[in-house]
Amino acid sequence: MNILLTGASGFIGQHLYIRLRQEGHRVVAAIREAEQFKMVFADAETIAVDYSRDHSANAWLPRLSGIDIVINAVGIIQQTAFQRFSDLHQKAPSALFDACELAGVRRVMQISALGAEAGATSQYHQSKFAADQHLAAKALDWAILRPSIVYGPGAKSTGFFRALAALPVTPLVNAGEQLIQPVHIDDLVTAVIVCIEEELAVKAEIDLVGPEPLSFKAYLQCQRQWLGLGDLRPLSIPYRLARPLVKMGGLLKIGPVNSESLDMLIQGNTAPVAPLVEHLGFIPRSVENELKRTPSQVADRWYAGLYFMPGVLRGCIALLWIMTGLCSLLLYPEVKSLDILSQAGIEGVPATLSLYMGGAIDLLLGLAMFSNRWMKPALIGQLLLTVTYTLIISCLLPELWLHPFGPVTKNLPLITATLCLLVIWRKT
Ligand SMILES: NC(=O)c1ccc[n+]([C@@H]2O[C@H](COP(=O)([O-])OP(=O)(O)OC[C@H]3O[C@@H](n4cnc5c(N)ncnc54)[C@H](OP(=O)(O)O)[C@@H]3O)[C@@H](O)[C@H]2O)c1
Description:
Elements: E1 2-6, H1 11-22, E2 26-31, H2 34-40, E3 45-48, H3 57-60, E4 69-72, H4 85-103, E5 107-111, H5 123-136, E6 141-147, E7 150-151, H6 156-166, E8 170-173, E9 179-180, E10 183-184, H7 185-197, E11 204-208, E12 214-215, H8 216-226, E13 234-237, H9 239-251, H10 259-267, H11 274-280, H12 287-293, H13 298-306, H14 309-331, H15 334-343, H16 348-367, H17 372-396, H18 411-424
Parallel strand pairs: 1-2, 1-4, 2-3, 4-5, 5-6, 6-11, 7-10, 8-13
Antiparallel strand pairs: 9-12
Helix pairs in contact: 1-7, 4-5, 6-8, 6-13, 8-12, 14-16, 14-18, 16-17, 17-18
The structure holds NADP nicotinamide-adenine-dinucleotide phosphate.
Residues 7, 9-13, 31-33, 49-52, 73-76, 83, 88, 111, 113, 147, 149-150, 155, 157 line the site of NADP nicotinamide-adenine-dinucleotide phosphate.
């Protein structure tokens, strides 16, 4: 089959892409950044799309030439100024489905989400439901798959939940009693493959869930045990207190935390498994059994333990440079600063220039840390500057290496921390 797979670069998309190719299908990956995708899948056939813009059937028609099946796996969990639920979940998929009808692509599979139904309160679910309804009204061979929380290798939510589970004390809203029914990524992929290859689930809406519900707390306990950390140490937080904290987490961009995802969790996320078994002919695996089957590795434990560190490191490094800049420019007495410079043989206009230019550069390098776009160049600048300062001081004031407060030796962990952040920082 010739399959157009949108969202092929995402967690679900990549798993689908690999398996569909393994099954012998030709898969066209409809994505935003082909170059990045080809770094992983060198022989990939790609096509450029952007759901924030592609809102007309005409934009999609040329991309459907020679395609038998379309699978839509694009989505976001948090909105930004440029990535709106209405655009990504509703307008672009609806235009794509219209184009399928016009181009005669009969089979369309929509990866929706459990809870996308009439009366849903979150914008996430409402926008998904709008596209589902648009598709369901079409005379196509559609299937709407509604996964619960999907877990497995590469799942962003799994990474976050494991990090929560690995904390010395795990905060749980209302004692973590909410019921969820996570489904493993391989079961989701199998569901799609079965739909395609056995032509099952035509005009069907299927909830993709695990075999039975479990509480959020029990889910985190499974993850903690899997990491080899023993029993969860829960700290129950009442919903009214959790909400403002989560709002703050959303502003600080900590994991997938935001008010809407908290409310979705509070509402629970479960469904009967029988329709899945009936339609697709297999029983999904349980979290407990799946985790037992694949023991955790050092990398899993590192990732869970260090999950929150890039954000903390980013804040601390930014603060260090901002404070250094402010001290040089405003807070530390100018006479004392100039005195230090004179000990290094820098005096007069060069000393004043060094003090104020150095301070301004430090301040800028600190402020740049708050911009995703500028953080990487700022880190490189900080590295170069710290190494340069260290070399200059080593030549002009070598006695500072023996200073009891360690003003120069502290540069070594700073250089290491900056290097670490440069390596581990990823786009989120
Ligand atoms: N993961 C779950 O637990 C879960 C549960 C229920 C439902 N779902 C649904 O399943 C779908 C896939 O989820 P996922 O976990 O794979 O998410 P993901 O890892 O965040 O992947 C999202 C995909 O959407 C693409 N995308 C984002 N903005 C785009 C845009 N403007 N134009 C084109 N493509 C864009 C991303 O491309 P880039 O790589 O360019 O960013 C990526 O390929 C979503 O619809 C989600 O709502 C997921």
